[in-house]
Amino acid sequence: MTGPPADDGAADSDAPEATVTLPADVVERYEKFSRFNSPYPAHDHGRAVDLYPGAGVGRSPVAGVVREVRTVGCPDRPYAAAEDHLIVVDLADEWCARAGAPSGTVARVLHVIPEVDPGDRVAVGDALGPTTRSGFFGQWVDDHVHLGFRPPDANPLRASGSLPVAADLHAEPVAWGGTGAVVERGPTHVVLDGPRRSGSGPAFAALASDEGVPLDGGLTHYAGGGTFRGKVGSTVPDGTTLSLFGTEIGSLRAGDADAGAPGVEWAPVDVLANGERVTGLSLFAARGDRFGVKVVCPDREFEIGESVTLDVVASDDPIRLGVG
């Protein structure tokens, strides 16, 4: 989960609604991506994207000239660095044209220790510096580049009022029965060996709802989640009810960026692992034929190789993690 500094929630009332659409060849440089896997408002409304490089190097998803670098405070977490960093980039007109962004749009990059300076010109794929473990995101979250955009003439240090973000690619929706073996274990999570994809189709894949919609976000430990663009040519109407493992988990909400991948208002449900409640599922689009599901479970221990069956059940007191 990520959260930029000065993120006070609602978008500025006069902010343009042009959507910045990341080209497919930019997103495909990363191992995973997510727009909704965070409790922070910018993510909750599809106005930021997290890009996971997987190699400890924060590579630039944009082209332009560095305007400013700044060290910022972040929540005090025992597993995290005491500070985070913001890199502001004035985007090149050519990059803006490819992404459908107004000329003069500014990019905001977080969670990278800057090895660039104001005035430096950066291209897509250039190393900005090493990624950092930030108190803005949970212990179970992998290092990543947080990316948002501010319209021309807006305060680039603010997150509120950022432009909607979309990705110009599709994620294969992969159905899964909910049972898998533990292949990775961390202090607050485990990763299961399912689901598996066919190996063909789009570069990215994501866990599918029962209706075949690829899911994004923290199910349901963050109040809002989202979806990815599914099969080419397919559309899912706003308000469509989604379910997982036979239980309703929420409905698509209108008004978010990128109508092909709207947000979801999660229903009040709990996630169970082998019959006991866990915090939730951390969902994203990932490359590879076996991308795994990450189970957030700081109060449970599972052994490598242990079989885990997930269920979703209605709840009177669902877990909801905030930004504090």
Give an overview in words.
Residues 7-16 have low confidence and may be disordered. The chain is globular and about 55 Å long. It has helices at 24-27, 41-44, 93-99, and strands at 20-22, 32-34, 49-52, 57-59, 64-73, 83-91, 106-110, 121-122, 127-130, 145-150, 165-167, 171-174, 179-185, 189-192, 204-207, 215-219, 224-227, 241-244, 247-252, 263-266, 269-273, 276-278, 280-283, 285-287, 294-296, 307-314. The protein folds into two domains: 20-167, Glucose Permease (Domain IIA) (Distorted Sandwich); 171-314, no CATH class. Strands 18-19-20-17-16-23-25-14-13-26-21-22 form a twelve-stranded antiparallel beta sheet, with no helix packed on it. Strands 8-5-6-7-10-3-2-24-15-12 form a ten-stranded mixed beta sheet. Helix content is 5%, strand content 37%. By secondary structure, the chain is mostly beta strands. The protein has three helices and 26 strands. Residues 1-20 are annotated as: Disordered. Residues 21-166, 172-312 form the DUF8155 domain. InterPro entries: DUF8155_C (IPR058817), DUF8155_N (IPR058468). Pfam families: DUF8155 (PF26482), DUF8155_C (PF26483).
